[in-house]
Amino acid sequence: MEKLIKYAFLILPSLNRVYYESSKELAIAELKILTRNLSNKVESIELKEIAGLTYVTFQSTEIIECDIKHISNHSTIYALYEIKDDDLFKPIALNRRDIFDDDLISIQKYMGKTNEYFTKFLLNVTISSTEFSSEKQLRILDPMCGRGTTMLQSMMYGYDSSGIELNKNLVSAFEGFIKSYMKSKRLKHKFQSLTKKKQLLLETAVSKEDYKNNNLVKLNITNGDTIDCRKIFPKNNFHCIAVDLPYGVQHGTTVNSSLKRGPLALLKQVVPEWIKILKPGGCIGISWNVNTCPRDIMIQTLEDTGLEVFDTEEYRKFVHRVDQAVLRDVIIAKKGRYFIHPLN
Q1: 5-92 adopts what CATH topology?
Q2: Which of 76, 89, 170, 337 is most buried, by CB atoms within 10 Å?
Q3: Residue-wise over 220-246: b if at least 16 C-beta within 10 A, else e?
Q4: Domain boundaries, the chain
Q5: Helix 116-129 / helix 149-156 crossing angle, nearest 10 deg
Q6: Tens digits of per-residue pLDDT, 286-343?
Q7: What DSSP assignment string belongs to 258-302?
């Protein structure tokens, strides 16, 4: 039997205080999900305080380069170490997927912005739960994208990203930002505005050579109603759908103008439409305020659409406090390979 090696990673010290405390337990759950498909089994994952700093420690046989890539993309990892028998920490270089500068995510500051580390967490656990987590090129959708944090994180990973947003002011703000960013970074790119479809399309690359060789990163944002997603995108198009439902707002669509405080009525309308544009084997990840809808009801709502909800121990460790009024949770549901809608 191969000897198990001890490892530890330091949690980012730059997180805000409230999220830092929540992130400790989230970090364990995320690592368990990220490492599900590693070549070697990871075990004994736990939090440990060392010299006043918080680490996530774990054991495995020697982790190889492809495994380091998975671990390096953890949303709160700051540094990775191998712990030697004499308790010396040997640094291991991280190998992140990020292809653009991190200010693509962090530079925007505005009221109501979702914590970018949580956005990365949501995207990571949703992608890792799909059957496509090892593929290099994915298509990601945020069907209620606001000012595009999830799209930008997908872009950071080199994935093609799409978003739908009903509020045209938020779409305009995103358009202004991304155009300014492309120009200031002098990235080779092309924008296309489709006025009739209310879409902005972007093609870019990390270098002029990649752009010339058609190694492109694509992004598009649509000003429209999420319930109309099937009119915007083809069937079975996306590997992953990730959405952070807005807090402190009333939810609804233009199809049904009756707005409600809780998200349940909205989800019953739109999830069947999201499923149509999700690939079999793909997953939907939803974060929401538990105070507006208990988890068991959310599970039942998604299962009623024919989705398979992940509800094992690690998937039940996502709930955390955002502020006094918001207790946030995340639920991941998969569209099976032989999905049949219950209503069909």
Answers
A1: Alpha-Beta Plaits (3.30.70)
A2: 76
A3: bbbbbbbbbbeebbeebbbbbbbbbbb
A4: 5-92, 103-334
A5: 60
A6: 999 999 999 999 999 999 999 999 999 999 999 998 888 899 999 999 998 776 666 5
A7: --BSSSHHHHHHHHHHHHHTEEEEEEEEEEEEGGGS-HHHHHHHH
